[in-house]
Structure formats: C-alpha cells, structure tokens
Design goal:
Chain C: It is a multi-pass membrane protein. The structure holds three protein chains of three kinds. By secondary structure, chain B is mainly alpha-helical. Chain B contains 16 helices and five strands. A three-stranded antiparallel sheet of chain B has the order 3-5-4. A two-stranded antiparallel sheet of chain B has the order 1-2. The longest helix of chain B has 30 residues. Helices cover 80% and strands 0% of the residues of chain C. Classes of the chains: A alpha/beta, B mainly alpha, C mainly alpha. Chains B and C meet through helix 2, helix 4, helix 5, helix 10 and helix 11 of B and helix 3, helix 5, helix 11 and helix 13 of C. Bound molecules: adenosine-5'-triphosphate (ATP) and magnesium ion.
C-alpha cells in the first residue's frame, strides 16, 4: 500500500471556549489537487493551521507521508492568506521569496548567491521576475499572491497547503495560478487548497474535502462533490447557492 | 470647612470619579493610550496659556489645555492619515514632543512659572487644601474641589444627556451612521471631556497617574459586568476605593498620594484579573479544565458513534486497547477519561470492550450539532 | 560653531555625555525599528515607565546606587511589565491598549511611592534617583558610558547574529513556525533586546520620554528607504544624531534639559522625513499628484476627475 500524503485522525481543535473542528479523520493520497470547501467559519483555515501546528489541538494526530509532521517539515510548504502580513513591511519581493529557504538554511546562516538564484527561478515560475527588486507594498493583490506562491515553490516541498490563493485575483492570474498548481500535481506533489468558488471546483480540482466544523465528506471529485453532500455542508445556505448546481457534474 | 485630610480625600475621590466615567469609553473604544497622550500634552496647553495670561489661576489655562488635548488627537490622526506612520507610532511621536516642549519652556522660564517638572509628574494633592476659595472674606473650601467638582458635573451631564449616542457609537458604529449620529462629532466631544478631565486631574495627581485613574477602574469593571451603565457606576465606585485606599496607604508609608492611588487601583485590578467571576484567570482556568474533560468526553462519544455507524454489527463493542490507540491519548489521560465516561453513564464496559449507551449517543449527536 | 567642535573634542565632560547619548541613540534607533514594525511602539512606553519601580527597588534592596545595579532592576521590572501586558491582554477580555495603560501607570505610580518613601529615609545616600525621571545627561560619567556602550554592543551583536530570524518574526511569524523555528523564543530574545535598549537610555533621557527614542528614529528612517537593513542603520544614525545634538544643546544653552532636547531634535527629524523624503514624503507625493494632473489636463482631460 502506498503511503498517504496526509493522514489526519481524530483531530479536534478549539479556540478558547469554542470547539471549531470535531473529530476530523482525513486521508489524502499523493499527487492530488484537493479543494477544501465549506461555508464561512466552517474551520477551513483552522484545519490547515492546526495541521501545520500553528494552533494547539485538543486531540488527534497528523502524519505527512507516513511520519509525524515534526519530522517532515521540510516536505511541507505553506501559503497563508494574503491578508495575514503587513504589505508595507520594508522588504523586497526577492527577499520575501528568499524567506522560503530559511527553513533549509537553519540558524544564523545568511542567504547567499545560491539562495538568491533559487528565489529568482521561483519568481520566474510565477512570471514575477521583473518585480524582484520592487518593494512589496507596490504590488497588486494578484501579484502579492504570486509572490507568496513563489515563496512556497522555493521550498521544494512534497505537499503544499494554500489558504485561498485565488482570493481577489483577476481571471488571468487565476488561470496562471491554476496552471502552476496542475504542474505541481503532475510532478507528483500534493496540493491542498482552501477554495471558495463552488462553480470552479469540478473544473480545477480532482479531490474534495467538504467541511463544516466536522468532516462532511472527503474523496475523489466525482464521488464527493454531490448535491446531497453540498446540502449537508452548506445547510440552508445551499438553497441560495442552488444556482451553482448547474455547474455540478 | 473640614480638616485638610478629609478635604484631600474628597478631592481625590472627585478626581477619581471624573476620570473613571470618561475612562469607561476609552477602554471600550480601545483608545486607552489616548489618555496617556492627552494627559501629557495638556501640560503644553497650560504653559502656553500661562504665557498669554500670566496668571496660574486663570480659567484660560484649562481651556488652553483642553485645546491642546484636541490638537494632540488631531495631530495623531493627521499623522496616521498620511499612511506613512502606524497609529500607535503616531501617538508615541506626538505626545513626547509636545510634552518635551512644555518641559523645556518650564525649565527655561522656571523663575516666571510656578510650575516645576516634579509637580507635573507627582501632582500636588497634599498641597491642594492650602489654595482656598475665599469669597467676600468667607472661606468656602479648597479651590481644587470646586474646579474638579465642576469638571465632574460636566462629565456626568454630558454622559447622561448623550448616553444613547455614546453607546451606539461605541458598540455599533454602523448603526450610528444609519441613525445619523456622527461618530466624528461624538469622538471629538469625548476627547474634549478627556482633555478637560486630564487638566483638572493633572493638578492633583500628575500626568501619568491620570492614566491609572482613567483606565484601571474601568478595565476592572469591564471584567465584572457587561452592562454599560453598571460598568460606569462600578468604575466610579472603584475609583473612589482607589482614592481612599491610596490615601490610607500614602499616609501609612508617608509616600506620594497620587502614586499610592495608582498602586491601589492596580491592586484592585489585579484582584479582579485573578478572581473575577466568569472572566478572571481562576474562572477561565477552571472552565478550561472542565472544557478539556468535556471535549474529551464528546470526542470519545463521537468517535465511538462514528464507529457504530460504520460497522453496526457485533453489538457495537470496541476493544479498549484499539480505542486507546485510535485516540492517541496518553494512557493515564485515557484511563481518567474512560472513568469519567463510565461514571456519567456515557459508556458501558464489558471485559475488554466498550459500547456507547443511549446517553452517550445523545452526547455525540449534540456534539456534532444535530 | 568652531568652539562647539572644540568643546566636543576636547571638553572631557561634554565628550563623555555626547558619546553616551550617541550610543543610546544608535541602540534605541536600531531596536526601535523592530518595535515600530511589529506595532509595539507603545509597549516601549510601558516598559520604560515600568523601569522606575525596578530602579527604586534595586536601590532599596541593595542600598547601592551604581548604574549597573539600578539598571538591572530596571531591566527586570521592564521584563515583568512586558510579560504582564501580554498575559492580561491574552488571557482576559481586557484589550491590549488597556493592559498597556494599566501597567504603565500603575508601575510608574508604584515607582513614585517607592521614590518618595526612599526620600523620607534617613539615609544620606538616597539622592539622585529622581534623575531617572527626565534623565540627566550632565551627570553621566565615563563609567556610565562604558556600561551603556557595553550593553549596546551586546544588543547590536545579537541583532546582527539573529537578523534573519528577527526579520522572519517581524514579517510572518506563522510562516517561521511552519519551517520549524521556535518563534516564541525568538520573540523573547528580541523583546529582551528592546528592554536592554530602553534601559541604556534611562540615565540620559529618563523613563518619561524614553519611548520617543525608540519610535521617532525608526519612523523617520522608514520614510527614506524600503529596505529593512538600511532602515535600521538610518534609524541608528538618526538616533545618534538626535542624542548628540540634544546633549550638546543642553550643555551649551542654560537650563535646557537634555532628555526633552533630544526628543525635540528627533521629532524634528521625523517632521523633515515625513515632509521631504523622496517618493514617500508628503511633498513628493503632492508634487507627483500635481504633475499627473497637469499632464492629464495637457492631454485634454476634464478638470473634475
Ligand atoms: N483566533 C481565533 N479565536 C477564536 N475563534 C476563532 C479564531 N479564529 C477563528 N475562530 C473561529 O473559528 C471558526 C472557524 O474559523 P476559520 O477561520 O477556520 O473558518 P474558515 O472556514 O476559514 O472561514 P472563511 O471562509 O471565512 O475563511 C469561526 O467560527 C471563527 O469565528
Ligand atoms: Mg479562512
């Protein structure tokens, strides 16, 4: 049996008083492009953050390629939501991308020529090489998103966690980012993406995790992305989203 | 009228109440540090007004100081609006500058101004009873009491009349906009009150301890209640308690009255921080522990329940050993959770197997939000 | 002017004082940059006010008035204050700004209690603690400068050593955590350095105005550059410039207190930077808007756009 890219078992997470994720069991095979979907407040961001150890968990365990997360950090790349950092910070695009290499650099060592070159290559992959020396506050939302993607690419990871990478980008950029994600999958990487637009889910992804505090469903697109499951995840709100049902397979 | 001690306590209490009731809105609006800024920069207003009037007793000093308070607020907002400076940094630039200018002016013209920088920081509460309000030869009591009393009246008047507006702007700015209440007007009105209060209190307790009286009692009250009018009343009470307690402490140690008031205000806050019912550290910790057990029980129930649904055969029993491995809890933790679950009748145990009871199933359903 | 330079080089006292103020400016400018970028500007204010009871207690407990003892007390009190602010805001519904206000004023009030208490003691050795309120540059002696410079060098060396980690912490803490860096520890080290920077300035600038020395040089420097390293260097330079000119002003103009003079000098740099810095500065931006409008009009655009 091939190892799963991600094994989450019995994951329960609570902020201060409130349980946000209950007893989540999740297995994801390697080399899939997975969409995590669910209504606002469903716990999508929380799921990713708790898998990455950014939020303490009440119970449960996480395995990446069969081994505990702590041993596998080098295999993991993370693209946080764009709004989580200060884009007026005095630093350049190239510098931000280079931060993706701090993990392999380790303590005290400075990024040198080699790191700069790797970062440049990552920037080329997202077509941002011309912006390398720009200050990050001079970027548009879509460009910021691509910089974050480049920072994840430079990590050379096996599994990618991305929180709403399509948020606030134009159609062109969306296509470009999608192309990139599909390339990653073709190269055998696992890509886990929090996504909001139900219409595009079947077109973009091949694996779906439906979440609403608890796990509603998890599996290949055709099996899981059904009206019944969506209704379960979105509840009453699904009625309003019914228009999107036309896009269902 | 009264003995000087009683007069000092009276003045201190009036100062504390005046500070506390405007402080409530600073605390609720997350603008606590504005009191720090204003209470420092009013000094410049006092000094400049003094240069104009050459009279330390002139009411123009209060007006000058209040205007300087508003200028501070305005400058901070202006700096912030250039988008070149973060808001907290803007506060941290404006008030030290204004305060420094004031200190330089005082020290350069020390001979002309009967203000010294120590008084600015320490306040002169102990001397307040010596400056008396004498009308047609009749001693009517210390001047400070009248000034602070008037400021307190203004505060009470404003807060009572505009209670609704203040409340809406504080808790629901969007609704305020819909109702046509201008947040800007309310904001500047409130800042004027803070400035006037700061000037008055400044004389008595000095610039930095104004902050203690404006923030500590309201923050304490905020740990004790959710209702705005109770919070205001409670802050006033706690302010008086800090004033009187502070006076006693100062008397006992023969130390700064203002400093002692701040210390007592801080001690009262510390008590609430630790022991406030529901919100204090102790309650929170206790609740966390309870919740942890509850989470554990619900997690256990949900886990067993999922398992039941997956394989509704063999009487739904589950080997304890296997269960422990799945939950990945330490063995002591697992044992105590199991004990609790048994005691609460959520599970039934037979030999090395467990099974959910109907009650346990209900808990699982509830936990999953069905 | 020439006389001033003469004095700066040959007047022993003035040189000592100016050196001390310069050292303090360098360290507070550099560390303050991080405080400002991490939105911790006012934490510096709380820490410096909280230093007062630390100084007083250190004296009460040891009976010793040497700078090293008193500043150790200040550093410990500052660290406790930071810890309290974080926990009050983190564990209860009391918000961060209220927590800052309470800790700042209550610690300071308690410091005043101790100070007045000490003044009443029949002990000839007690005078001189008040100089920590507004600072007293003139009272600084060679030994103090050595201590300041020593502490400053340690702080700057650590800043240099953990540069990459501090940058990561300031820009994207969560990302650092996912790469396996112990961000809480890095945060602790950086905050300790901030406390150190504050402590260094207490003798010269005093607890009341010290926060300005952290914030103002950084804010001024930020306007001239978009590069963190240059910003930190520039802030250090601005800090030193303000420190030296403030102390020189205080020693040449009669009855000019040093702390406030330094603050006015550094604020002047802030105003200059915000107005005149290329690209970011207000005048530059206004000018650019104006030129754009002109060009737009020249192209035949309507006026009211
Ligand atoms: N730091 C926090 N403290 C307390 N509660 C939080 C915190 N962050 C999130 N929550 C709560 O946890 C729940 C899940 O939040 P989360 O951000 O994971 O949702 P999400 O699915 O990512 O939503 P969205 O689609 O809006 O991004 C929400 O109810 C939210 O209010
Ligand atoms: Mg989210």
């Amino acid at each position: 049996m091939p190892t799963n890219a991600l094994d989450v078992s019995d994951l329960t997470v609570a902020y201060k008083e409130k349980p946000v994720l209950w007893d989540i069991d999740l297995t994801v095979p390697p080399a899939v492009l997975l969409a995590v979907i669910g209504p606002n407040g469903a716990g999508k961001t929380t799921l990713i953050k708790s898998i990455l150890g950014l939020i303490p968990t009440v119970a449960g365990s996480v395995r990446i390629y069969g081994r505990p997360y702590k041993e596998q950090r080098k295999q993991v790349a993370y693209v946080p939501q764009r709004g989580t950092v200060d884009w007026d910070f005095p630093t350049s695009v190239l510098d931000v991308v280079t931060m993706g290499l701090y993990g392999t650099l380790g303590w005290l060592k400075r990024p040198g020529k080699k790191e700069k070159k790797l970062a440049m290559e990552a920037l080329e992959m997202v077509a941002m090489q011309d912006y390398a020396h720009r200050q990050i506050s001079q970027l548009s939302g879509g460009q910021q998103q691509r910089v974050f993607l480049a920072r994840a690419l430079v990590q050379q990871a096996e599994i990618y966690f991305m929180d709403e990478p399509f948020q606030g980008v134009d159609a062109m950029t969306e296509k470009a980012i999608l192309r990139l994600l599909k390339d990653l999958r073709s190269a055998g990487k696992t890509v886990i993406v929090v996504h909001h637009d139900l219409q595009t889910v079947p077109e973009y992804f091949d694996w779906v995790t439906l979440l609403n505090t608890r796990l509603v469903a998890n599996g290949p697109m055709e099996e899981v992305f059904t009206e019944a499951n969506l209704e379960k995840a979105y509840g009453g709100r699904f009625m309003q989203l019914k228009a999107t049902a036309r896009a269902l397979p | 009228m009264f003995s000087p001690q009683v007069e000092i306590m009276l003045i201190a209490s009036v100062v504390a109440v005046a500070c506390a009731i405007v402080g409530v809105f600073l605390v609720l609006r997350s603008m606590a540090m504005m009191s720090d800024a204003i209470s420092h920069s009013v000094l410049l207003g006092i000094v400049l007004a003094f240069f104009l009037t050459r009279d330390l007793a002139s009411p123009a000093l209060i007006i000058g100081a209040a205007v300087m308070g508003l200028i501070t607020v305005f400058l901070v907002e202006m700096l912030h609006q250039t988008r070149l400076v973060y808001e907290d940094a803007a506060i941290g630039i404006v008030f030290p500058l204004l305060f420094s200018i004031a200190v330089i002016l005082i020290s350069r013209h020390a001979a002309n101004i009967h203000l010294d920088t120590d008084a600015v920081l320490l306040g002169e509460l102990a001397f307040a009873p010596f400056d008396r309000f004498i009308y047609q030869g009749v001693d009517l009591g210390p001047k400070a009491l009248y000034i602070m009393g008037a400021i307190l009246m203004v505060n009470i008047f404003f807060i009572t009349i505009f209670f609704k507006e203040l409340k809406i702007v504080t808790f629901d700015p969007q609704l305020a906009a819909v109702l046509g209440i201008s947040p800007v007007v309310v904001h500047y009105a409130l800042m004027s009150l803070v400035s006037i209060t700061a000037v008055g209190a400044f004389d008595a307790v000095g610039s930095i301890l104004v902050v203690a009286l404006m923030i500590a009692p309201p923050a304490t009250a905020y740990l004790l209640t959710d209702r705005l009018h109770i919070m205001i009343g409670l802050s006033a009470l706690l302010g008086v308690a800090s004033a009187l307690g502070g006076y006693a402490m100062a008397h006992y140690l023969d130390a700064s009255i203002a400093g002692s008031m701040a210390t007592v205000a801080g001690l009262i806050f510390a008590i609430a921080f630790l022991f406030a019912p529901g919100r204090g550290l102790l309650s929170v910790a206790k609740r966390r522990v309870e919740q942890r057990w509850n989470f554990a029980l619900v997690t256990l129930a949900i886990h067993l329940w999922h398992r039941e649904k997956l394989s509704p055969v063999v009487g739904n029993a589950y080997a304890i050993q296997e269960l422990r491995q799945h939950l990945r809890w330490s063995s002591t933790y697992f044992t105590s959770v199991m004990e609790r679950a048994l005691k609460q009748g959520l599970i039934a145990k037979r030999d090395q197997y467990v099974q959910l009871t109907e009650e346990g199933r209900n808990l699982a359903r509830e936990g999953q939000g069905f | 002017m020439i006389e001033l330079f003469n004095n700066l080089f040959f007047d022993h006292t003035l040189r000592t004082v100016a050196l001390g103020a310069g050292a303090l400016g360098i360290v507070s400018g550099a560390l303050g940059s991080f405080a400002v970028l991490r939105r911790q500007s006012l934490l510096g204010d709380a820490i410096s006010h909280a230093a007062l009871p630390g100084i007083a207690l250190a004296f009460l407990l040891t009976g010793n008035k040497s700078a090293l003892v008193l500043l150790s007390g200040a550093a410990i009190a500052g660290a406790i204050a930071t810890w309290l602010v974080t926990n009050i805001a983190g564990l209860t519904r009391v918000k961060y700004d209220s927590a800052l206000g309470i800790i700042l004023s209550v610690f300071f009030g308690f410091g005043l209690v101790l100070l007045t208490y000490i003044q009443k003691q029949p002990n000839a050795n007690q005078a001189g603690l008040e100089k920590y309120l507004f600072g007293q540059a003139a009272a600084i002696v060679e030994k103090d400068v050595l201590i300041m410079a020593g502490l400053g060098l340690v702080a700057l060396f650590l800043l240099f050593l953990f540069w990459k980690e501090f940058k990561l912490l300031s820009f994207d803490r969560d990302f650092g955590t996912t790469m396996g860096y112990p961000m809480a520890l890095i945060d602790f080290v950086l905050t300790t350095l901030l406390v150190l920077a504050i402590v260094i300035g207490l003798q010269t600038v005093g607890v009341v105005l010290m926060s300005a020395m952290l914030i103002a040089p950084a804010v001024a420097a930020r306007q001239w550059t978009d590069n963190l390293a240059i910003m930190v260097l520039l802030a250090a330079f601005f800090g030193a410039l303000a420190g030296v000119s403030g102390t020189v002003a205080s020693s040449t103009i009669s009855r000019m207190p040093a702390g406030p003079a330094i603050v006015v000098a550094v604020s002047f740099l802030v105003v200059l930077s915000i107005l005149f810095a290329p690209r970011r500065g207000v005048i530059w931006q206004r000018g650019r808007d104006y030129l754009l409008r002109q060009r737009f009009r020249a192209l035949g655009g309507k006026k009211d756009v």
